[in-house]
Amino acid sequence: xxxxxxxxxxxxxxxxxxxxxxxxxxxxxxxxxxxxxxxxxxxxxxxxxxxxxxxxxxxxxxxxxxxxxxxxxxxxxxxxxxxxxxxxxxxxxxxxxxxxxxxxxxxxxxxxxxxxxxxxxxxxxxxxxxxxxxxxxxxxxxxxxxxxxxxxxxxxxxxxxxxxxxxxxxxxxxxxxxxxxxxxxxxxxxxxxxxxxxxxxxxxxxxxxxxxxxxxxxxxxxxxxxxxxxxxxxxxxxxxxxxxxxxxxxxxxxxxxxxxxxxxxxxxxxxxxxxxxxxxxxxxxxxxxxxxxxxxxxxxxxxxxxxxxxxxxxxxxxxxxxxxxxxxxxxxxxxxxxxxxxxxx
Length: 345
Ligand code: F6P
What we know:
There is one protein chain. By secondary structure, the chain is of the alpha/beta class. It has helices at about 15-30, 45, 55-60, 80-95, 105-115, 140-160, 175-185, 200-210, 250-265, 285-300, 320-325, 335-340; strands at about 5-10, 35-40, 50-55, 100-105, 120-125, 165-170, 190, 220-225, 270, 310-315, 315-320. It has two domains: about 5-140 and about 285-325, Rossmann fold (3-Layer(aba) Sandwich), CATH 3.40.50.450; about 145-275, 3-Layer(aba) Sandwich (Rossmann fold). About 40% of the residues lie in helices and about 15% in strands. The strands form two sheets. Strands 3-2-1-4-5-10-11 form a seven-stranded mixed sheet, sandwiched between helices. 6-O-phosphono-beta-D-fructofuranose binds near residues 12, 104, 129, 171 and 224.
């Protein structure tokens, strides 16, 4: 009988998810003769036995599509022993020989636990924030950087024409990778990341210095997970949490704009890029990276390298232990952030 492989996508969507699924199925069917089943909406589909047919027909025409044809959720079976047991039970009931989980630290954290409980699991790193340890790059991140950079370019026009400061809030819950890359690429006059609490006096000094030199506008790039130096919590609009206990971010941009305007007297506006960064078609680079990850994931299944995640190290895709991949948050390389700082003010 043909071996049956499950695929699921968990956590926030990300450009390139469909390209990963497509590569897994294409090579899995053609080279290894596997059959596939799609698990709908991440781990939720495994807990609820909600699946969808997945074959070469289902992946046709999906390479360039954003989002995920399998759906996604933040349901995490790792939250309790009962849900972990249920996931194991349903894996067996579905008759799976292996499961490929495409996701970030929550999704892959659960994958690591289920592997320890005896399931044949391979992980693929997905996070727009690019903060998964174990890999140099998660797919989708570069597309998000392109989107954020284009937005900064456009916002420059208004900032210059109206002599305003514009705060651009980008994604980055624990790590400021998008802010740092887009800040360098878009010529941000100040770039703020969660790794370094915001020193408002310093930020305003930089903006005032620019004004004194006749530069009547400023672009401030801020990651949504930033907090002010004298506050212990990240800024949120309502303090609200989603049903999985994650604080809903989004708020630092507006608060920062208010403070800058109050302290410098310069008209300051905020633009929150939000989910615009996660949606849409993957860049050519991300389509290639996603395809490479998908091919490696099905190769790992074939080679029975379970409990591993596909990772980019230098220019090679290599296996790393799922436990290593989810051990800690990969924060911004300060050497890179220092390059952004050269252009502050
Ligand atoms: O997946 C990471 C991320 O994009 C974070 O940068 C952001 O804070 C969060 O997801 C938003 O999640 P949601 O779309 O579930 O509100």
